[in-house]
Amino acid sequence: MSLTLSHIRSAAERLSGISVNTPLLENYYVNSRFNANVYFKLENCQHIGAFKFRGAYNRLCQLDSSQKKRGVVAFSSGNHAQGIALAAKKLGMSATIVMPSDAPRLKLEGTLRLGAKVIEYDRATESRERIAEDIAKETGATLVPAFEDFDVMAGQGTVGLEIVDQLNAIQQKLDTFLSPCGGGGLLAGTSTAITNLLPTVRIFGVEQERYDDHALSKAAGHRVQISGEVPTMCDSLMASTPGEMTWSVNSKTVDDFLVVSEDSIAFAVAFAFRHLKLVIEPGGAVGLAALLERKIDISGKNVAIVLSGGNIDPNTFDYCQSKFPNPE
Predict the structure, then answer these.
(1) Where do the domains of the chain lie, and which CATH numbers do they carry?
(2) How far apart are alpha carbons 113 and 110 in whole angstroms?
(3) How far apart are CA 265 and CA 234, in angstroms?
(4) What are the pLDDT digits (tens) for 116-171?
(5) Which of 63, 120, 265, 289 could form a cystine bridge with 101, CB 3.0-4.6 A?
(6) pLDDT digits over 210-251, tens only?
């Protein structure tokens, strides 16, 4: 099986009236600064404050009645957890989420509020995959990966469909697309949608410099594993290697991967609040960070950047604001 535009269109039908068709924001200060038309896709306005609800619901709504009775299990640092929890709640299912003990409290508490059972684990000494697999075996629950699943990817790909439709509505054609990249599910879905509809668009995945496994894999010509144990404020991008399934897509659809520093991400969070009037989490702001670092030349282009989530820990938000009080 592979990911196709048809899969993404089917996901869009399932999500119609369920997920939020999130805004595409243009900012004239940003446009004048970069001599480009820059459009921000506001997935911080999605249910649970991040794009992850799309893929979670698209996967869960296709389970049969016996699977729904047994519930689902997932592992996540936060956004996939909340996406699964809300999707399960909407579909009348139980959900168990394996989360790291150091996950942002905002995300952990949000998952609990949505009715999921949370099991915490130690990142340093325990395997979340093994814990989740054991739960699935013991209970018969369906294990739903955060990105290694074509139905999940197809759900995330609806972000790309919406961007193209929204630009068509204002008679604009996309030239360049930037998406955050952790496990690669959002990038796989959106790049599949966009390249099928607009083959000439340049596609870029954006990573935090300490978790640049996709950039390293692109350079090596095969999937590369990194340590994955370095602290970062980008809790949503802490994948140590590209997913096998997501890489089968992204290695073909993505032109290149851009890498941004922790400081540039903090600056982007502060910039988004000051100039876009948005609260964006660090992992969701890496595309904006790449723009502000001028990682690519976008002069005269129509550029779409996914701001993938807004679930930022208050202390992290305060840190970004205090470090960059005047982000110009």
Answers:
(1) 5-50+149-323 (3.40.50.1100), 53-143 (3.40.50.1100)
(2) 5
(3) 9
(4) 999 999 988 888 899 999 999 999 999 999 999 999 999 999 999 999 999 999 99
(5) 120
(6) 999 999 999 999 999 998 778 899 999 999 999 999 999 999
